[in-house]
Specification:
about 150 residues, mainly alpha
Length: about 150
Amino acid sequence: MIKKLLRNIKVLLLRLLRINDSVHGIAIGFTVGALVNFVPTFGFGPVLSAAGARLVKGNPVAGFIGGLLFLWAFPMLFYLNIVVGHALLMVMKFMIPLVGERFAGELLIWQAFVLGMLINLLLFGMSIYIIIYFFMKKYRYDILMFIYRKWKI
């Protein structure tokens, strides 16, 4: 089972590196595809990844691959949204008096989730785009040859 999973990852990475498009298009498509996993999509994540990538003029194949590569991480990303949002709401509750009065009662889970999701989308989006753009621009061919020749499964 692990061998099949590694083979699928290898195929997706080879497909991503072989896309004949601009580096910006691939990076923005992959980023949008990966970021869809921060949002509950109820099973439509890969489709929304490709559609979202096309919407921002990125590569839809890269968006689809980005959505598939991080599909397994959705439960952790969902929890990360809640943790980040809750931490920010607690800081806002004690730092800003008007907001503190507004949230004087119990914090609602959806408030924490939405705030955390927005912050995580912004931070992870910028990080993923910069990393993918840099590696695709500088080391695309080297990574492709390494995966193709040396990664034996």
